Amino acid sequence: MAAATAGVVEELTRVYRELPPRPAVEEVEAAAAVLASADAEEEARLADVAREEAARLREAEGVSGELLAVLREARRAAVRLRALQQRKEAAHVVELERRFKVLDGLIQRASRVVSPSGEGSSGGGGGVEMAEVVEEMDARRSAVAAAASAVGEIERGNRGVGFGLDTKAVSSLLRDGSTGSDMVDQKLSLIQVASLIESSAKRGTTELNLRGKLVDQIEWLPVSLGKLQDVTELDISENRIMALPSTVGSLRYLTKLDIHSNQLINLPDTFGELSSLIDLDLHANQLKSLPASFGNLTSLANLDLSSNQFKILPDCIGKLMNLRRLIAETNELEELPYTIGSCISLVELRLDFNQLKALPEGIGKLEKLEILTLHYNRIKGLPTTIGSLTRLRELDVSFNEVEGIPESICFATSLVKLNVSRNFADLRALPRSIGNLEMLEELDISSNQIRMLPDSFEFLAKLRVFHADETPLEVPPREVIKLGAQAVVQYVADMVASRGASQKKTEGTSFWAWFRSLFGCCKKDEELGLVPA
Hints:
- It comes from Triticum aestivum.
- The chain is of the alpha/beta class.
- The chain folds into 2 domains: 12-54 and 72-105 and 190-203, no CATH class; 206-495, Ribonuclease Inhibitor (Leucine-rich repeat, LRR (right-handed beta-alpha superhelix), Alpha-Beta Horseshoe), CATH 3.80.10.
- The protein contains 8 helices and 12 strands.
- It has helices at residues 2-17, 25-59, 65-114, 125-157, 172-175, 190-203, 478-481, 485-527, and strands at residues 207-209, 233-235, 256-258, 279-281, 302-304, 325-327, 348-350, 371-373, 394-396, 417-419, 442-444, 465-467.
- It has a 12-stranded parallel sheet with strand order 1-2-3-4-5-6-7-8-9-10-11-12, covered by helices on one side.
- Helix 2 (25-59) runs antiparallel to helix 3 and helix 3 (65-114) packs across helix 4 (125-157).
- The longest helix is centred in the first third of the chain and has 50 residues, at 65-114.
- It is elongated, with a radius of gyration of 38 Å.
- The model is unreliable at 118-124 and 143-184 (pLDDT under 50).
């Protein structure tokens, strides 16, 4: 009897020890989060399909209704298929854990049979062996937790490497002796990302780097992202993310967020709740608008919106009174909101490669602005308020349709670099008072129709770079321009001085000729007796 019992216990022990590795606690929680996110994402995508189809029905005159119905069903089926694919791994983990719990119950049940309470010796050797199995089962669960802790310690010690470890199964650190250093280049699946979020949230991680670390199939992040309450820096750039969960607004301590080079179409309304955000990089996505709550990001200092699909910026941009750097180049911007003038801390504004035709007068309120670049737009003129930018050091309006530069620009006396090149047939003259820009070091007037430099050019004593390629300048001549910027300045100075001397001599000669003619007339009248001698 005892021998038979021992044989059964031995068989149970062998079965248990041949089981595959059990998922870590974080993995199970992550899988549950992924399933919840997949459901929410599927509903959101289906709602998007419904809205787009409603809009298409209004516009698609003459298209077969049946064909449109087929398209609608195909798109809905594709959404469901992608959601199923995203659920697959998470569902496997959840099912694995469910079956492990069934085996846990069976082992506990066997333990009670061979070692009933108060009868520890009745099962003979089988009771001892069964107790060992139960202890081993508990030890394996403890090992999983210990592995997770080990991951945390290694990650904290290798923060400079990013997150550093493949968290496919935290317990794998003990199972196969793997280390973080040989996994840095591996890409993570959705459930691995969710697992990493869970473990990072529990450890109070402050920096998380997922740049280029997600497999291409991941188009959204799990709702559990909102658990990263202690994170201050988050980098999820260079992936293929199309949407952020609304829970991103829970990251109240986040100061730096980098999402560049993804496929974001919009931002959730909760984005404006990131009240501590200082640095935000959204360049190289597919954004066409910003949520109304964006104006609540009043701590924002650096914002990169370049390489998106913006045609306008919202008026709420004017609420960003601490914004120092705004990069919005390579979009489809046709105008700037007048409220841009309320961004009174702005130091750098880059708007290259857009469709701008003019700047609002409010631009003159940006008294701290030092850099303004506008090349490759359709601007025909600058506002007169440009002269109020007394700290402006660099202005680039090349490759536009500028017809004239206002004289008021000469009040921007801090200008060091001015580029008005390649306005082709439109720009024919520089401001007469350009010599007021005594700090100017670089000037480019290439490919315009300017034929003569103004006399005040002689006062540009600090000019060291002067380009006038393909500009039909007659004064100074081309051979002087080849000698360099200061040779041009000196030529204009000499020309002005020469003209002044010549004019003075001419005026003097004219006076004495007049005087002699007058004196001659008096002598003639005396000789004729018309006046007394």
